[in-house]
Amino acid sequence: MSNYILKQFSQQPAMIDISFTLNGETTTITTDPLRRLLDILRDDLGLTGTKEGCGEGECGACTVLLDGKPVTSCIVNAVAVHGHDVTTIEGVSASPDGRLLIDCLYEAEAVQCGFCFPGIVMSALAYMRAGGIADNERIRAALAGNLCRCTGYEFIVKGVAEACRRWRDL
Known about the structure:
By secondary structure, the chain is α+β, with helices and mostly antiparallel strands. It has helices at 3-10, 37-44, 96-107, 117-129, 136-142, 154-169; strands at residues 16-22, 25-31, 63-66, 69-72, 85-87.
């Protein structure tokens, strides 16, 4: 291999400043623009509530909200969040609808091992905020990108439906 090629492979990636709103607070980090959002949240910012499951965007364990829409953070590059709003599971209980959702899921006994749960909460919260109603089929469709190996989803759907009912009544 030529020295030119070896030199190209040994160079460090370009680092850039990424600024975004994270759970309501302005955040700026210096990082590789192609680094995964999941790694930034967990490793750099200490927000370990967001879990890594498949690493391919298929299981939903790493779901966060990007400008209010659920995304799998394992396939979102750092540069994609620059100037945007990111909400993680750690930021959910700060909002009235997030606290209500968590309470309803707890009351419905929807939590089992807890690994997939942060992603499910994020998808369910996006559904509620989009005007979601207490309709089991619609809730299942909204949660379709979140896999859980412990449950049959009945208690999860029940909790989300109850949160939708209570939220509409407020």
